[in-house]
Amino acid sequence: MALATLNDDVSTPFVKAQFSDRVLIRTILSRPDGGAGLAGQTVKVGGWVKTGREQGKGSFAFLELNDGSCPANLQVIVDAAVAPLGQLVQTGTCVHVEGLLKVPPEGTKQRVELRVEKVHHVGPVDPAKYPLPKTRLTLEFLRDFVHFRPRTNTISAVARIRNALAYATHTFFQNHSFLYIHTPIVTTSDCEGAGEMFQVTTLISDAEKVEKELIKNPPPSEADIEAAKALVKEKGEAVAQLKSAKASKGEITASVAELNKAKENLSRLEERSKLKPGIPQKDGKIDYSQDFFARQAFLTVSGQLQVETYACAVSSVYTFGPTFRAEHSHTSRHLAEFWMVEPEIAFADLKDDMNCAEAYVKFLCQWLLDNCIDDMEFMAKNFDKGCIDRLRMVASTSFERISYTEAIKLLEEAVKKDKKFENKVEWGIDLASEHERFLTEVLFKKPVIVHDYPKGIKAFYMRLNDDMKTVAAMDVLVPKVGELIGGSQREERYEVIEKRILEMGLPLEPYEWYLDLRRYGTVKHCGFGLGFERMILFATGIDNIRDVIPFPRYPGRADL
Amino acid sequence: MALATLNDDVSTPFVKAQFSDRVLIRTILSRPDGGAGLAGQTVKVGGWVKTGREQGKGSFAFLELNDGSCPANLQVIVDAAVAPLGQLVQTGTCVHVEGLLKVPPEGTKQRVELRVEKVHHVGPVDPAKYPLPKTRLTLEFLRDFVHFRPRTNTISAVARIRNALAYATHTFFQNHSFLYIHTPIVTTSDCEGAGEMFQVTTLISDAEKVEKELIKNPPPSEADIEAAKALVKEKGEAVAQLKSAKASKGEITASVAELNKAKENLSRLEERSKLKPGIPQKDGKIDYSQDFFARQAFLTVSGQLQVETYACAVSSVYTFGPTFRAEHSHTSRHLAEFWMVEPEIAFADLKDDMNCAEAYVKFLCQWLLDNCIDDMEFMAKNFDKGCIDRLRMVASTSFERISYTEAIKLLEEAVKKDKKFENKVEWGIDLASEHERFLTEVLFKKPVIVHDYPKGIKAFYMRLNDDMKTVAAMDVLVPKVGELIGGSQREERYEVIEKRILEMGLPLEPYEWYLDLRRYGTVKHCGFGLGFERMILFATGIDNIRDVIPFPRYPGRADL
After folding, report:
1. How far apart are CA B512 and CA B496, in angstroms?
2. What biological processes does GO assign it (chains A, B) (predicted)?
């Protein structure tokens, strides 16, 4: 019976390995026969013990082993003759073992189990100190241990779902010939002039360096500089004297060298005397010309404006990257660092935009059903009974499309029929989350695209409609989270967008490059943004956004 | 003859459209017949005019149209009867047109051309003002126009190659069951303690807000506060008096309300009196407890340490994201913001690491040959004659693997044979770029993996070999760029890594979470980092790294 080593060997019944000599537990357990057909094969596996127990008076142990490749555990049996059992059974222990796959006795849940013949490595755990005991832990508790929480069932399932949605995103846009563009993280543009931004700077650390240096090496005094000046004068006079006395070339050269040394010393002292502790100032303000980028720089809040430069050159593009908001929001829906997907399409209008958004969201849902059903079943069992049905519904149902004006009418009718909202309903308001969720969850019971919003509540770059009151904007609302996507056709007419910027009280200068796209070879185009963590909340039914990103950042917290 | 609209209609001879009613020029020109088989079809296309010229005494115009989907232009013919020609022929003009595909007369280069029947939209260009004239422009010149440069042949070809390499990266790791993990951009850990980091802060903007507020609304004086205190005392006495006089409940309530108002006013004034201009200080240092994350925060220099927490839970993972260095390097090889790919593999050692790195680089090269050959031909013609052969060689040749000690021997032998290096060769040195390129370009003429470096020149987390002198590190060297990948097996032994951190003079406290991974359930693991822009330089033969990222950031420069 051959050892099933997997490195790039596709002739084994297992998938290609991950450059490791062990078999993924998923490749055993995810087979239609639950792995039973592999009985008789010898394999290496590695993973972390979920639970372990000694049996038969300590003659053998059962381990539930998980390697993160799937939610299911492999049942592993170790005889006391093979290895000391006490260490192996502790939750969190890492084991790398080799053994024989066997069909377990009738009446057990497993279809296959591993009987260990050799233990290659053990990474032990002291259960008295390990922060993740066997008991059920709350997601909130786990946030204090971001370096261990991927070892839990929930956070590892979220990681697999997040990974699947990311690859589905790339696959969708690549299938439709969009180019993935890396927009900048550090930016000197402020998209929309809205939202608090994080500043990126080296001024503080530079100032700290100067301060340390000045403590170690105090700056020269006035007297030091005067003395250095006097020395330069003296050495200069010496040179002049030697020259007028027609001294030898050697003597003059030596004297000039001394003069130069004195000059260098003076200029070094003068340079150092300019060193001042603190952040450099000019005219009573911070002197950003001395910052790393020679101007004030921030973390991006959106790649949209920048990616438009590529849409206006290579047609269909998308970004997928981190974005930042320095808002002091302590809600379950906000992060200071989160990921956004932002496609931008040239030669396309609002209808194309809605078609793209709908196709993309459906694709993501279908992808999870096709590729992550075991993780989705875990979510359905533990967090949100309806989450799989919701994916199925969204993947297969046409999204409702209604104008903002129609949406307001429907909400007003609901109010007349005694529906209570906390926020007043009238034309011109920004729809509140309660309105959005009423439309998608109660009224239509499916995703709803609301389009053509009042211009007063939307950004300057959205295309003004012919009614002069609304703009070609659209939001995709879905059950569970409300707004999942916001997008618009962009204003491609130079005169109109210039007027809109000024109307909104924004300065033109920072947008000159953006206006250039309308001045030279302007094109009809549109795009949208999807909050990636919102999509994960929608898919999994998890409530707090801090649990669907590996390393959450929010006010007061940035672990690791 | 039907209009070939393409939205999701796969029954047409074209690929699925990009949510637009136009056909991608690539889908016409990249057919084996060069598009000739489509003659007779009516299509819509959109793009930007590369060159245009009026012919036949102004009776018609030829336009070379490019939409960014491929390097080739579609030849478009417009009759003067269809649209005014003067505007159409300017370089940079955007046109969205409909017409008939035709086989051009014998003897022309094109296999198909479009005869326009309808012009849907024109985005004009004033050639006197457009910054990108028809003439050949240097890449350096184009850096001043990052918002227009993707309209050039070179930068759009780079965008397509960059996109292809990004998707190939995801496809490779997904094929091998790695999970894509989003490591944080804002971090409070300093990987390796090396490298200058950018600080992320809201302290400066908060201080500016306070300053503005204090100018608008000066802080209360001592006298204001004394007066407010006196008022509180007075109101308090009034309440006491009413109570002792057994006044009516109404009178007492009114009096208490006045007292509370006075107290609120006092606490508001006291709060405002604490407002101080400038960045908050405590004990002579900046008080970071008042910063957004309640501690000092930076932009990440690598996601490795953080992604290890996922490798030590879900086995095989990778990151692909932006990383940052605040180094004042003005070279053609350094950026302040660049993208890195960092896989991390559990249950794997240095050999597995080298296998993975070699397979990955080969996969990238083969992917470009399979998916971007037209862009590669453009690069071969304009930048680097050998770039296609280089891809073929790397995709098909086994990488040489030599130890650092062997590499030093080979370099010393070369020195004996009169090879001149600027940097001295002896055991213990960090290999310089000239040494690396000599090994890969001259000596082996293929990629070389150098492994097992002296511990003194490598990071603390690399696994100490049994010789106690070297660590299980490896670098992949390739022709043209030298070091493309750096990686290592990680030290999984708690006692050894703790000793290494202390040996290097680093504090333990910031690494406690990293040490925890070795304390509890430790696992043999390895990983590497690939500089994504270096890979593009290697593939394209372009010399300056600023030209292979859409929005380059370097000292003094962060446009848009």
Report:
1. 14
2. asparaginyl-tRNA aminoacylation
**Which candidate from A163, A352, A556 shows the least CB-CB separation from B293?**
A556
pLDDT at B194 over 70: no
What is d(CA B474, CA A559) in angstroms, rounded to the nearest whole number? Answer: 30
Who among A123, A159, A524 is closest to B314 (CB)? A159
- What value does the mean pLDDT take over residues A525-542? 98
Give chain A's largest Cα–Cα span: 115
What is the sign of the dihedral through the CA atoms of B436, B437, B442 and B448? positive
Task: Determine the length of chain B.
Answer: 560
The rounded distance, in Å, linking the Cα atoms of A322 and A335 is 11
- Share of residues in chain B with pLDDT > 70 (%): 96
Nearest residue in chain B measured CA to CA from A17: B176
Of B320, B287, B328, the C-alpha closest to B303 is: B320
Query: Two tokens at B479?
Result: 């022709």
Residue of chain A with shortest Cα separation from B133: A520
Instruction: Write the pLDDT tens digit of every residue in B386-420.
Output: 999 999 999 999 999 999 999 999 999 999 999 99
Whole-angstrom distance, CA of residue B339 vs CA of residue B342: 10
- From B25, B346, B299, select the one nearest B187 (Cα to Cα): B299
Longest dimension (CA), chain B: 115
CA B397 to chain centre: 29
Name the residue among B46, B314, B550 with its Cβ closest to that of A347.
B46
Round to whole Å and give the CA distance between A300 and A188: 8
* Distance between CA atoms of residues B261 and B239, nearest Å: 13
* Helical segments of A24-142, H only: 25-29, 85-88, 139-142
Measured distance between the N- and C-terminal CA atoms of chain A, rounded to whole angstroms:
46
Contact call for residues B236 and B259 (beta carbons, < 8 A)? yes
CA distances from A417 to A411, A420, A431 (A): 10, 9, 19
C-alpha–C-alpha distance, residues A325 and A226, integer Å: 52
Query: Out of A8, A67, A205, whose CB is closest to B199?
Result: A205
Q: How far apart are CA B218 and CA B199, in angstroms?
A: 31
Helix (H, G, I), strand (E, B) or coil at A536: helix
Residue A517 pLDDT > 90: yes
Give the Cα separation of B28 and B45 in Å (integer): 10
What is the C-alpha to C-alpha distance for residues A50 and B519, in angstroms, rounded to an integer? 17
Q: Which of A26, A170, A520, A533 to mutate to test the interface with B (most CBs of B within 10 A)?
A: A520
Instruction: Quote the ipTM score.
Output: 0.93
Give contacts of B199 with chain A, Cβ < 8 Å: 200-202, 204-205
d(CA A252, CA A83): 87
Distance CA A76, CA A89 (A): 11
Q: B7 and A179: CB-CB below 8 Å?
A: no
Judge: B126–A520 Cβ closer than 8 Å, yes or no: yes
Please give the Cα distance from B477 to B447 (Å, whole number). Answer: 6
* Residues in chain A closer than 8 A to B72 (CB atoms): none
Between chains, do B560 and A188 touch, taking CB under 8 Å as contact? yes
Buried b (16+ CB within 10 A) or exposed e, A296-308: bbbbbbbbbbbbb
Q: How buried is A522 (Cβ within 10 angstroms: 0-12 exposed, 13-18 middle, 19+ buried)? A: buried
Per-residue DSSP letter, A137: -
Provide the phi-psi class of B92: left if phi over 0, else alpha when psi is between -120 and 50, else beta: left
The shortest CB-CB distance from B286 to any of A129, A163, A204 is to A204
Note whether B20 contacts A46, CB cutoff 8 Å: no
**Chain A: closest CA distance from residue B470 (Å):** 23
> What is the spatial distance between Cα A166 and Cα A162, in angstroms, rounded to a whole number?
6
Global pTM exceeds 0.90 = yes
Q: Name the average pLDDT for chain B.
A: 93
